[in-house]
Amino acid sequence: MPEATFIHPLFGPVRFRTVDSTWVRGGQIVFLSGFDTNDIQPVNIPQLVNIPGSHGGRPSFHKRAHEQLLMVFADIDRLGLLHHIKTCAGSLNSRLKKPVNGALSKEPSNHAFGIAIDLNADDGSLGASVAPVAPVFEALQFKWGKSFNDPMHFEVKTFIDHPRSIAQDVVAHLDGVPVDIGAMNLTGNLVANVAKASTALRIVANPANGSKVRLKGPGGTRTLNVRQLGDNMYASLPHIAGLAKLKMSYDNQAKTAHLTS
Known about the structure:
Elements: E1 3-8, E2 12-18, E3 29-33, E4 40-42, E5 60-62, H1 66-78, E6 116-118, H2 134-139, E7 142-144, E8 153-156, E9 167-169, E10 171-174, E11 177-178, E12 184-186, E13 189-193, H3 194-201, E14 204-207, E15 212-217, E16 220-225, E17 227-229, E18 232-236, H4 237-243, E19 247-251, E20 256-260
């Protein structure tokens, strides 16, 4: 049963041995020192309760990343992206890495440390259908496995001990009357849902090259950068207000955007 030392970027040097008598691709391992498996504990994730393979919404994950993982799924839900998650292939698995190219790896998988989770593994594209939720994982310091041809896979890149939501709902008023423009504070930027804002504020929106949209309204024409999240595009609310020829003020304490004509 081979033994080896691996220096993990988050946990430092760890010593482990294989369960098999020789190195086997994806073979089971046992930690000998440097890592406490008792730190891997079930976490209750309400959004995964009905997702097959999630152990009833209680996957086992490293305790230091519990709040981080909870925030990821809360934000996915908040952004209306939860329907993109169909199945979960689990999180904890004490094994060696299994490179997609079929090569033998002698390094522990991040699943063995309880800091990785696989989603939509059975979609026929190695989980590529989970792409719409990837920006949320990445914003909360998870690495997306697409970079090494394993798109179902998300792993903790950096621990966040006190994670904050990347998406906070914002109430919008137009001349004192509530209006649904899908406004929110997204990663520190005040944005609106392009489709909803176009309808409510009578702006014409047309796709532009790349991640941009061309908007035309009473206040002029402008091409804006957009943030694509699932089926929705978000663009700067102050710029949208200007194109609608509206004045805007924002009450940060009440999380309310006031638009006036």
